[in-house]
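Allow me, if you will, to draw on your knowledge of protein folds for a short while. I have a record of one protein: its chain in single-letter code and its fold written as discrete structure tokens. I remain grateful for any guidance, and I place the record below:
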Amino acid sequence: MYLIDNLRNVRFVNALRCSFHHLDEYETTPNSLLHSSAGFVPKSTKWVTEEETKNFKSMFPYLVKDLTNSNVYEINPDATKRLINALEYNVPHGKMVCGLVAVAFYKAIEDPAKLTNENIHLANILGWCVHLLYSSFIITDDITDCSKIRRGSPCWYLPENVGLNSITDAVWIENLIYTILQKYFSKHRCYKKMLMGQTLDMICTQNGVPQLNRFDMKLYKSIVNLKTAPLFILPIMLAMHMASRGNEVLYKEVCKISLDLGHYLQVQNDFMDCFGDSNVTGKFGSDIEDGKCTWLIIQALQRGSQTQRNILENNYGKGGSENVAAVRSVYEDLKLSNIYGIFEEKTCALIGSDIEKLVSDELQHRFFRNFLNSIYKSQS
């Protein structure tokens, strides 16, 4: 089966661990309706209901209690307290898009006769597994990027009583997923297909210096395909497994849409990192300082004059405020904001057209349409 081959592919499985820091603050309702030449006009402005979100969030306290039951997991009181603090600080926050996608898509594709309270409960648990995985990656991602703020609060590694112990917390949170899967899904037909793997780091710097001569769209698309697209693929495929729905044709169609969504989301994230409002996004962008391979730097390298390229080479990947200002000045002179706007319109029109061609029923079409609508022109 196409999906299982993908899940067994080392690059695909490992990429899951690098894919979860771009959807955190996306709204479940759009900032504006999406209209395109492809005729993409959503019938609804939501892909997940308020009731579904409320039910999903309400499960967290019970899940924490279940996971930290000393009698069951033999965790000592001090360790239990630390785990509870780590979970409560890092997990039940943000829009929880990754987890909610698993729940909403499962309900959209499951046979109505099988949408029992028990199965919906299991779908919510599955969604929390996805969100726990995402949360564990965010902890280590913030350390790697030396980030300061996450969702309006200090990153988990910053408090004095945490520090680099946060790495242990991240591993601990990730491993809780396997405990959950074993407890709730060990007898389920989809259990073995749900197990997830290790990490993959995409390195585009050498000795801390960005390799601008290597930055091009081919490299960028490779990073996106391994880093961001799995964010959407994972909960969708888990839901399809749980519902035992889909075939090779549908899997391929969904994967293509997921790759396109991943590319759009990554470009959007790159743009917001530089030009977004930190009061809205809840974090301060650092791609320029970190020398990341982003859509913006690639566009600047492709479109800029030799003088502008020299400015980029002398300032990109350096942490000084004057260095960042110099790079941003080049971006602004090249009017990359306008170029991004054109890219966004064309990309969403193409994705909308592909969604309409999906070999599936109206419920699946509606889900994908509404999800695309919810991230279009997002400011967070």
Confidence is low (pLDDT under 50) at residues 1-45, 190-204. Residues 2-375 form a domain with the Farnesyl Diphosphate Synthase fold (CATH 1.10.600.10). The radius of gyration is 21 Å.
